[in-house]
Amino acid sequence: MAKKEQETAKKATKTSSAKAKKKASAEQTEVQAVADKKVNTDKLAVADGDLSAEQKLVNLYKLQTMLTEIDKIKTLRGELPLEVQDLEDEVAGLQTRIQNFQLDSKEIDTTIGQQRIKITDSGTLINKYKEQLENVRNNREFDSLSKEIEFQGLEVELAEKRIREYTAESKIINVEIVKSKALLEERQADLKSKKEELDEIVSETKIQEEQLREKAKQLETTIEPRLLAAFKRIRKSARNGLAVVYIQRDACGGCFNKIPPQRQLDIKLRKKTIVCEHCGRIIIDPQLAGVE
Length: 292
Ligand SMILES: [Zn+2]
Prior knowledge:
mainly alpha; Helix Hairpins; 8 helices; binds zinc ion
């Protein structure tokens, strides 16, 4: 079997490399120990085993940084489409509101027009009755015409009252229309810029994300599967997605529990993978993270 031979050859290269063996023995953390055991049996490229413990931690931290970047991109995208959707809904709502106000306003104008016609009609009748008054033949006719004139006068007053009421209502509606139109303009401008922002981010981050994913994939091949699996597991359970943190003010950068001095020294030696006793995150020294 050619494949098996190849593997055996790889293993031979691996075990014959005393240097690699020495380095491997320096790594004593549980995760690392299991990972190393796997290195000997798995079909891992020899170069992977040759990486120093320090380089492994650097790679792991680099991977963490890349994945955090991808998380940020996702967050950006995750919120913007929602914001755009909300604005689109609001714009549509405002347009409907303005339309309804305009219909109301039109109806009021029609009603006011009808009241004006009523006033004109009553005025005509009043003039006609007044002319007739001059030629009345008896008291009965006079009373009847006077009553009609009085009645039409009341009709005019009522119509005028209605016109005043409708005009006041119309004014309120028109103010609302102006307000809604201003708000609509504002929201449409917001929508336009948010849409542009989203389009930009989508097209921009698409390339960025692809590049990050490609780099992350390459980095992952330099990390032992066991360690990588542990890393992914920690990342998943960590609320902020951070599996590798550095010491911050003598404390774990993930859960902020104090790290005993001896443990801090071990971390700074960069000889093994050390995890936080409290949260399980992998802790590195700040210098390795490029912070100090
Ligand atoms: Zn912690």
